[in-house]
Specification:
Length: about 170
């Protein structure tokens, strides 16, 4: 009689190890706030990324300088903000042909964030997240969940809830 139970256990162990190896952290959307400032946002907080002509935004008078206007997207109207400017960094170029917009959403609202460039999705382990206090300007710290130190750069881990809370004020 052939004993297959050892083979089944080996296969299950191999499959579990493959899944563990494949899942090397949580997924994050990586983008550039400015040309020199990389940042990430949890994919649980990012809904989508769109590229849009500036003429598609409807400017609104008497708004803070970082509010770029309103966007009608899929029959929903949402605010679009210049995220680097809101964070106290240099503003996004306004004489460009298109904006890179990251759309974030919570249970109450949807908001568009204009960023310099979107680089893609990366995986990061939670143990890589460090305190931002010693790494970045104190004006940005309230909008961060932490920093990730990589070989050539410091990634800012943004807090979408805090960004939305500030944008609604």
């Amino acid at each position: 009689m052939l004993d297959l139970s050892a083979d089944k256990n080996s296969l299950a162990l191999l499959t579990n190890q493959h899944l563990i190896a494949k899942n090397q952290g949580d997924t994050y959307l990586k983008f550039q706030l400015t040309q020199q400032t990389p940042a990430v946002l949890s994919m649980t907080q990012a809904q989508e990324v769109i590229v849009l002509a500036p003429s598609r935004l409807t400017p609104m008078p008497n708004m803070p300088a970082y509010v770029m206007g309103l966007l009608n997207r899929r029959s929903r109207v949402l605010w679009v903000i210049d995220l680097p400017r809101m964070l106290g960094l240099s503003r996004v170029e306004t004489n460009i042909q298109q904006y890179n917009i990251v759309i974030i959403r919570n249970e109450l609202a949807t908001l568009g964030l204009i960023v310099a460039a979107v680089e893609g999705v990366i995986r990061l382990k939670s143990e890589c997240i460090q305190s931002p206090l010693e790494q970045v300007s104190s004006t940005i710290v309230p909008y961060l969940r932490g920093c990730i130190l990589q070989k050539e750069e410091i990634l800012l881990l943004l807090d979408a809830e805090e960004i939305m809370r500030n944008a609604q004020q």
